[in-house]
Amino acid sequence: MEAKADDIHIIETPTEFYGALLDGIRSELRESLDSALASNPSLNVHVLVDQMRGTRPDKNARSSSTATLLLPLVKKYPAQTTVSLFEFPSKNPLTKLVPARFNEAFGLQHIKAYVFDNDVVISGANLNTDYFTNRQDRYILIKNNPQVAAYFTSLLKRLRNASLSEMKAALTKFSNKSLAEMPSNALTDAVSISPLESANCDTQSHHSFKLALLVSTRSHLLTLLLKNVAASSETTVVCSSAYFNLPKHFHNLVLQSKARFQFLLAAPEANGFFGSKGVSRHIPFAYTFLPTTSGKK
């Protein structure tokens, strides 16, 4: 997809990230959504969250979760508000037995994209307080681009068809349309999107996702990129990843390449499990260990 470089903004701080979201809804998060829905009957709000993480109580408030936070909006504006809880299908019985903070290891919907009309914020940050105060992540704001906005809106709608959408008061009963029942090309079909009319576009963006059950990846684009730069010792490739864990195929391409690679990785202190109790306290350092051993293989 094409874009103008001047319309792509790298957001540098958590405060600016929060401000970019507020610009889309014009004030405090849930309260501003409430106000915006009340003042604009034609406004539609669709929120897609992971079912396990979205219903997990906040560590500082046992009865509070993303789902309970959004439930009042669904009740107050049922015709304008949709909250989809994506449940990753898993036949592993341990998903019902392990604690809430660990069951997401069996599958997690992790898209963090925010669409406001023709503007899109793509990020690694969720809407947790830490990300608005002292936790730095990656944020890219693409403005005035109906093509990118339409792509993410279409992806959101397709995932909605495989999500739990009926939010009952007790948040215990849902209407489930299983992901396994979706056709294999449900997410991989090309979205019919008109190209930007402007001839001034000078930037290409390629959005990929991975969903093992539907084999829905666009990893061939990354493979092609790595192969194209492999022979050039004058090329520098800059990669950013919060969790460095390259698939073996990509790992081998990087090691065999003559190009110079720079990796921007998250420090252990930026991990949500940093300083936690029990086994989870080792998770941040496991991700630190991976890049130190990768170069030796």
From TrEMBL:
Gene3D superfamilies: Endonuclease Chain A. GO terms for molecular function: ATP binding; CDP-diacylglycerol-glycerol-3-phosphate 3-phosphatidyltransferase activity. Residues 105-131 form the PLD phosphodiesterase domain. It is an enzyme of class 2 (transferase). Pathway: Phospholipid metabolism; phosphatidylglycerol biosynthesis; phosphatidylglycerol from CDP-diacylglycerol: step 1/2. The keyword Lipoprotein does not apply. Keywords: ATP-binding, Lipid biosynthesis, Lipid metabolism, Mitochondrion, Nucleotide-binding, Phospholipid biosynthesis, Phospholipid metabolism, Repeat, Transferase. Its EC number is 2.7.8.5. It catalyses: a CDP-1,2-diacyl-sn-glycerol + sn-glycerol 3-phosphate = a 1,2-diacyl-sn-glycero-3-phospho-(1'-sn-glycero-3'-phosphate) + CMP + H(+). It is found in: Mitochondrion. SUPFAM superfamilies: Phospholipase D/nuclease (SSF56024). One of its GO terms (cellular component) is mitochondrion. Functions in the biosynthesis of the anionic phospholipids phosphatidylglycerol and cardiolipin. This is CDP-diacylglycerol--glycerol-3-phosphate 3-phosphatidyltransferase.
